[in-house]
Structure formats: C-alpha cells, structure tokens
Amino acid sequence: MSDTGLNRPGQGIIYICIGVLAISINDLLVKSLSGGYALHQLMFLRSSVAILFSFSFLFMEGGLKLLATDRPFLHLLRGLLVVGANMTYFAAVAVLPLGQVTALFFVAPLFITLLAIPILGEKVGPMRLGAVLVGLAGVVIMQEPWAVDLPVSRTVLLLPVAAAALYSLMQVMTRRLGVKSRASALAIYIQGAFLLVSALFYLVAGDGRYAEGVENESLIFLLRAWHWPPQEDWWAIAGLGVSSGAIGYCLSAAYRTANAATVAPFEYFGLPLAILWGWTFFDEWPSGVTWIGCALIIGAGLFVFLREQRRERPMPGRRGRWGRR
User: Fold this and answer.
1) Is residue 265 within 8 Å of 97, Cβ to Cβ?
2) Who's near 284: CB < 8 A, 6+ residues apart?
3) Which residue in 46, 225, 302, 306 is deepest, having the highest Cβ count within 10 Å?
4) Residue 28: its pLDDT value, please?
C-alpha cells in the first residue's frame, strides 16, 4: 500500500505519467533556452514561478504552519543536493542529446542500492549487486572509452552520472534521517534553495566575467551573464515554472495514491519522451552505443526495483520512491 493507505492504481499511473511528461517538457525547455541564458538564471526564473504553485498547494493542505520543521539542517542539505543534481544534469542537457542524458540519469536507482549499504546498513544480495554491475557497465559503454575523438569531453558525459549520484545521496540521506513534512512544504524548501543558490550565483558571476575565454559549452551555460528575457521567451520561462510545479505535485500524488510497484516502472516513460523531443526539435537520434547502454541501465534498474519489491512484500507499509526533480 502507499503511505496514506490508499491504493488507486489507475489514478496513480495517471499522476506519474503527467509528472514524467512534465519532467520531459522541463528538459526540453531548458535545452531550447540554453543557448541564450545562464543556467542559474533559468533556475531562478523557474523557481520564482514554481514556488507560487507550491504555496498554493501548501494553503490547500493546511497553511503556513506546515512549514514548521524540527530538522532545518536536513531540509537545507536536501535542497543543496537537489540543486547540485539539477545544475549538473542541465549542464549536460545543454550539450548532449536528451535521450542520452535521461538514460544516464536513470543509473540513480542503482546508486541508491549501493549507498544504502554504508548509510542505511542494508544488506544487498548477489542478484542485486550483479544488476548494479550490469547497469554500471551500461554507463561505461555510453562513455565510449575506446573512442579517440569524441564530439564532447568525457567530463560532460559524466555530468548526468554525477547528477544521479547527488540525487541518490539525497534520497538515501532522507530515508536515513527521516522527513515528516508535507509534499508542498518539501517543494517550497527545495524551490527556496534554488532561489538562494541562483541569487548567490548572480552576485558572484551574474555579469558573465567568468565565462570570458571559456570554450566548454556546459561551463558557458553555467557562467553566462544574466539578461532580461525578450518577450518571445517568456512563454517558455513560464512553462518551466508550471512544469516544475507539476513535477513535484504529480510525483508525490502518484506515490500517495498507489503502490510504488505499480507506478515506479512508469517513470521510465521519460526515456522514449526524451528521445522523441530530441528527434523532433533538435534532430538528435541515439547511436547504437547509446541504445546498448540504455538497455543495460534500464534493464538493471527495473530488475533491482522488482527484487526490492519482492524482498519487501511482507512489509506492506514500506515503499520506495523514485521521484526525480
């Protein structure tokens, strides 16, 4: 059962599909705007809109009193880890095909399995460890270590993997320390972290001085100067905020209304969507190596999830959560 005792699989699947669609649209909009804006400016503008939606959900759930917490450090740490995961992820989106970035990020469930050993003290059997190795082999294949001349540096290829590692650490530490806040309050804490970090970036590098002479496109995206958006870009910026607000709400609602075993596999719906957007809008099509890596990572992730569900089946109150941003 879900953590609220509800079990409405149809409703949960609808929520998760809408949430994954919102994630893919968010990625698409960031990539389309990455040529003219700094990443931290986009994050600031996105969170300025998204936090308004989060506050509206907060008032629907009970009001400002829900923001009270006895673990402010945990929320600060979660926020910084999510910001770091987003920054590294979108720095890769600006340069790499959407499908490739999405597939590499899906290594996160495998990292969660590994991190749960030292942090949570969980025992991981040989079957799941073998699946983790298979998924990591997929990551290595997508790095193309045999290639001499790649179109991007291998540092850029590792950015989605770094994003997955930061996200996984956030998830495992949350499970270790525990979070009792409502989903709307959690969303506000995270959006607030985005606003704070983005504002600090602006104070330090908002004039673009650190981007001068830089050739790496991901670094340029991160360090480019802020500027006032022209009128034709406001629809896309508003779309970033709306999709970001929808992500937090729909993913939370999905896992509240149905079993994780029912809804979590639908998160992989994001991969064909990313490939579709990349092909439609950016003329990107995955290479054979990318397809092989995708198959290994996705297959390993699904195997690990199903094994965990089978292992935890006698404990109906427990569930996993694979929510993304």
Assistant:
1) no
2) 97, 98, 99, 275, 278
3) 46
4) 95
The answer on pLDDT for 318 being more than 70 is no
Structural contact between residues 270 and 22, judged by C-beta atoms closer than 8 angstroms? no
Q: Is residue 256 part of a domain?
A: no
Distance (Å) of CA 314 to CA 78, 256, 261: 30, 19, 13
User: Could you please report the per-residue DSSP string of 253-275?
Assistant: HHHHHS-HHHHGGGGGGHHHHHH
In a domain, 22, yes or no: no
Q: What is the pLDDT of residue 167?
A: 87
CA–CA gap between residue 270 and residue 139 (Å, rounded): 18
Residue scoring higher pLDDT (171 or 211): 211
**Is the separation of the CB atoms in 317 and 1 below 8 Å?**
yes
C-beta neighbour count of 306 within 10 angstroms: 14
Structural contact between residues 114 and 132, judged by C-beta atoms closer than 8 angstroms: yes
Question: What is the distance, to the nearest Å, from the Cα of residue 182 to the centroid of all Cα atoms in its chain?
Answer: 19
What is the total count of domains within the chain? 1
Residue 82 domain-assigned?
yes
User: How far is Cα 111 from Cα 302, in angstroms, rounded to an integer?
Assistant: 13
Range of the domain at 90: 29-248
**For the stretch 17-34, what's the b/e string if a residue is b when 16 or more beta carbons lie within 10 angstroms of its beta carbon?**
bbbbbbbbbbbbbbbebb
Q: Is residue 137, in this structure, part of any structural domain at all?
A: yes
DSSP 207: T
Separation CA 58–CA 188 (nearest Å)? 9
Reported pTM: 0.85
Report the residue count for the chain: 325
d(CA 325, CA 319): 19
**pLDDT tens sequence across 214-237:** 888 888 998 999 999 999 999 999
C-alpha to C-alpha distance for 242 and 15, rounded to whole angstroms:
15
Tokens representing 20 are 């994954």
